[in-house]
């Protein structure tokens, strides 16, 4: 069944709005080629840059598109002429991008039928699809890592608590730490988290009205998602121990956190994080009574970021240092 694809006033010549239609094609990014049943080119508009032809001679498929694609187009157009069915496929040019090609049969009520070839640059669409696939793969990877960390936290926490109430209290705090760090990572499109933001997020849960009790200074590097997650857990353990000791000493305990980045002897940048906790004279002496805190701080955290750590308790002072290669974590 023949159908009109356009309409215009009978007293208005088609060539008067031809340039306007061509401009619309240019803005749409679509190239249109019209050919007679014989294959003779009748019209070409908005040809894409990868292809070109001498406008002083009649164009030919193989001359415009090259031998391989030209032959593929000729065969596809022959099938469309016979079947009257639309054909569609994509072409990938390594140096130019992706193109969608649609070949259609038009039974014009004004004359002989035409073969229309429409070519659209879909490189941006394919790029967005690839970005989305990469993001989904990254999300899957991060989710599996987080689940593994949660499982490890549950197992380790359970070892130090024989009652459910005690386990839930400690476990929920550690899950909050993971969640707070993950929020920062997500806010930065999974590129990492700023160190100072990480400290602030962990501190405000236990000292919401007095953030001066724990001061942070020094550099503010962006830690990768892996480093942010595990440094956040280390800060959580230190802050919980400080809060417990602080409650026993009526606000006499404080801490300073410092951070800097320096190259090591091999020229590799390393992130150094130190925690120094002190208390007024006469305060209850510090001790890590939680069976999970010391292994977490001295073994699990540094191993997870390919670094090293030390804890030192001297009188009323608790010192903790964590060092890890910045370059290694950039790829985590």
UniProtKB/TrEMBL annotation:
GO terms for molecular function: protein histidine kinase activity. It comes from the Bacteria. Keywords: ATP-binding, Kinase, Nucleotide-binding, Phosphoprotein, Transferase. It catalyses: ATP + protein L-histidine = ADP + protein N-phospho-L-histidine. InterPro entries: Sig_transdc_His_kinase_HWE. It holds the Pfam family HWE_HK. Its EC number is 2.7.13.3. Residues 138-220 form the Signal transduction histidine kinase HWE region domain. It is an enzyme of class 2 (transferase). This is histidine kinase.
